[in-house]
Batch of 2 targets.
Target 1
Amino acid sequence: MRILFYSPDSEAEIWTKGFAEIMPEAHLHFWKEGETLENSEPADYAIVWRPPISMLQGRTDVRAIFNLGAGVDALLKYGDSLPPAPIVRLDDAGMGVQMAEFVTHTVLRHYRRFDDYEEQARNSQWQVLKPYDKANFAVGILGLGVLGRRIAQALQHFDFPVRGWSHTMKDVPGVSCFAGKEGLDEFLSGTRVLVCVLPLTSETSNMLCRANFSKLPEGAYLINVARGAHLAEPDLLAMIKSGHIAGATLDVFRNEPLPKQHPFWQEPRITITPHIAALTLYNESIRQIAGKIAALERGEPIAGVVDRERGY
Ligand code: NAP
Ligand code: GLV
């Protein structure tokens, strides 16, 4: 079994060792810039994270392309230049619990006013602040997929009212569900903390914009753990300055790493993390991909196959 592999940030040794333990029959070939179809080894499968198109274009040998992340926007942007093989995204693979930790931490930090207390502590100020009313502190999750549902489940443990928005209507116990363009305004109007965990598609790009922020109640808070291109950056800055948005925690950006001169760094009400909300975990990912390759080899269907038309 020959696997063509590309991931710019990860260490070859870890992947090689991991696959050797679980799939000893697999030979990993680490694709390098400059390798062409003509001088590259043939492959049965490809495993990739944000590859250049030159790695995949024209490859009719691969039977599936495994994406080393949940979001496939960096692959689908290549459109018809991609080989026809199914694209398979990571299906949780340890990311759900990380997302739940990240978002729960951020919601609690804001709800319990730890950000305000940190500010006070910097000024040696001892003052009890008025607690927020939890009944009016609904967390609204844009995207009720694998990760959104896991976030919803975690927040319910702390009794936050939880609402969710998706493409097709869902029935998630304890979660007020909304769907489609027709459900968006009502979803936003009752949301105090807006969490974006949507895939990036032509429909969801720039969704975090002035028009939608205006529909949130005064003092709403934003958490974006999806993709930078969901956010109209100048709109967020303007809405924070006006006070309509109280602040934001952003894990993803249009340009990563976020450039040093970017105004977000200067805005104290914006908390920045370097795209770490849910990291791809080696062991979980290897186990999941190896399991799916084995299922494909047996001719069985697998979960997580991307619908190219839909974009996720
Ligand atoms: P998923 O299981 O495919 O779920 C996507 C959800 O978004 C689904 O509920 C879907 O609705 C909804 N959706 C998609 N397009 C929509 C639209 N136009 N209107 C309304 N709802 C729409 O994806 P996932 O595994 O939860 O991952 C979500 C995203 O998280 C990824 O695509 C990636 O960009 C991001 N991510 C970020 C990090 C990080 O570290 N920051 C890590 C992992 C993932 P339906 O269910 O009705 O189809
Ligand atoms: C990370 O951003 C992912 O999509 O898995």
Target 2
Amino acid sequence: MTAEYQVNGNVAVITLNNPPVNGLGHSTRSAIVEGMKKALDDAAVKAIVITGAGKAFSGGADIKEFNSPKAMAEPTLHTVINVVEGSDKPVVAAIHTVCMGGGLELALGCHYRVATAGAQIALPEVKLGILPGAGGTQRLPRVLGLEMALNMIVSGTPVPSEKLAKTALFNEMIEGDLLAGALAFAGKIADARPLPRVRDIKVNYPNYEAFLQFSRNTVKAMSGPFPAPLKCVEAVAASITKKFDDGIKFERELFVELVQTTESKALRHAFFGERAASKIPDVPEDTPTRAIKSAAVIGAGTMGGGIAMNFANAGIPVQILEMKQEALDKGLATIRKNYENTMKKGKLTQEKFDQRVGLITGTLSYEGIGQADIVVEAVFEDMGVKEQVFKKLDEVMKPGAILASNTSTLDVDQIASFTKRPEDVVGTHFFSPANVMKLLEIVRGKKTAKDVLATTLALSKKIKKTGVVSGVCDGFIGNRMIEQYSRQAGFLLEEGCTPEQVDKAVEKFGFAMGPFRMGDLAGNDIGWYIRKRRYVEKPQISYSKTADLLCEMGRFGQKTGAGWYDYKPGDRKPYPSQLVNDMIIKHSADLGVERRKISDQEIVERLVFALANEGAYILEEGIAMRASDIDMVYLTGYGFPLHRGGPMFYADTVGLPNVVMAMDKYAKGRHGDAWKPAPLLAKLAAEGKGFNG
Ligand code: 3HC
Ligand code: NAI
């Protein structure tokens, strides 16, 4: 049973029991209605308490049921709430830990609500691209007032129950045992009549029209491509402008509209994608993890410093090892400066600053780091240097320590082979700036032990990263795919585009930054260095030499004051460069390519479908475990627009047969070899399926 029924004296207790968060799926909804019937039919029962077992009152509607017949099957959440609110025996919600979405809406349908302190109270639907669809937009303003309810509904942010203790949301805060307190409360109100109903409260707000207009303007400016926040305002407005039942009907219409939008589907995909990423089919969830109480980082450069900050931010002491005092001092000073900047922005207290800086120490000696539970290597990207470092780590690290490499392109299996304990070696590929970017690619070597993987995944959560497991291949998931994207960007320049045109088209699609602005920010010389190695190794792969010509002009990007764009001193704004555009045009002429006008649609399709096609290879080779893992890599590490759900999800929304058709068209152009559909893509398209089922 997903809800249990018990009678305690003359009070019936309905306990939601649908782990992990008592989601209000169809069977739970049915069980609540059944419980209500029993209680109403039993003359000995004078009052009813609804509560939740385990670690939640309720996390809300079961999101997995959305867009399936179960979501609409009777009893719907509306029906459940009507049964509760219409009950002629008082119903008390006993709230603890988590009370969100449909869970809060159910509580608002009860006649009374009691809660313990520390419960997270929220209507977080907006974060899933929808709005509260079971009366939340109509009832919450009636207990919290228009302004506070609107803020909660538009932001979706949880508020601790004790902060709402004095509002009409709660009748009593319970200290100690919740159920005992709720039963005692039920005893007190068992005979009180008439039963209070939230729907009967009137929302008052002087000059509400001006407030609502202000809210619409602000929310519109902040919600970007997402339609839900503005609809939330409209629904909340109805709580004051319409009669209760009309408001409910209006809310329902908006909910049904939003739940079908691609934006909402993309957000739900990301919600489940993030959670799925931490599951590895052959590594059971109860795999014991190794304790990580101390860490070491080798190399205090760009990445080493940021990686060390992650440990310190999570309260884990970390030592940074460098070869020379000067490099160490420079690295430690950069870390300090980063923290100081955060403090200046008011995002870090002096106390936290002292704590974090105090957790980071420097050393020049391997002897001192041997007892660390994990060591992350972030030295130069050179196999010879990695070999030296890993041989040394094998000598000095205690048994059971995890030996991680932050390599971005090198073979983790080869790195592991430099040690006598390859099972302890794993790739931890952080993204720059490592203290900011959410993504952590966890590279599973052939011999990486299961508990090492489980520990690294757990660590990624502890340091607030999205950990995604990748197999070993050149570039892992993210960089292997971006190579195809960059190739297309280069070809587009040769065929008629300017860097600005490509960037603008991609940014209009929703990317945080187009490929050329990104190149200027990261440094064009990094790609130049990689290409020199890669295309010598793989001469069969065609690529545009435009970026090499740019580097030969010394235009490495913002750091040299010039890249694909011109920059003015002290100004990061890119200005189109006549010099670069002339170079590009000349290069087309040298190649004998007649430049043509290229549409934004073609630009976006060529860049994004190139990603999805490489993603399909990665999936069928088993480098990624699931399509949503690839999407998580792109959403959290590469600025892919969240409302598009990631490259694989986006390809699904376009329809894989349409993707293949577009690819066939581009295959007839230059460099047609790039457009051969991966066998998995071709197969799924032929079967009318998507990457995500
Ligand atoms: N429906 C289905 N599954 C849910 C769920 C929900 N509403 N909320 C959480 N889960 C699942 C997660 O997918 C995860 O499953 P897994 O173990 O198989 O991966 C599991 O519950 C645990 O979730 P977390 O890892 O997130 O656990 P935490 O303890 O960190 O957080 C939580 C718990 C705060 C409840 C968090 O899961 C959360 O924010 N959930 C979403 C809440 C939400 O958005 N509710 C609104 C739903 S829409 C709605 O109610 C519509 C209504 O207005 C009609
Ligand atoms: P960096 O050049 O900024 O820093 C490397 C540091 O390692 C230098 O301070 C150097 O003195 C030190 N070092 C070199 N050999 C050493 C040794 N034997 N012992 C101790 N210290 C040594 O390089 P960066 O950018 O931090 O890169 C480090 C690693 O991270 C590389 O493997 C790189 O591929 C990877 N990476 C880099 C990213 C980036 O955006 N910079 C992103 C993701 C991964």
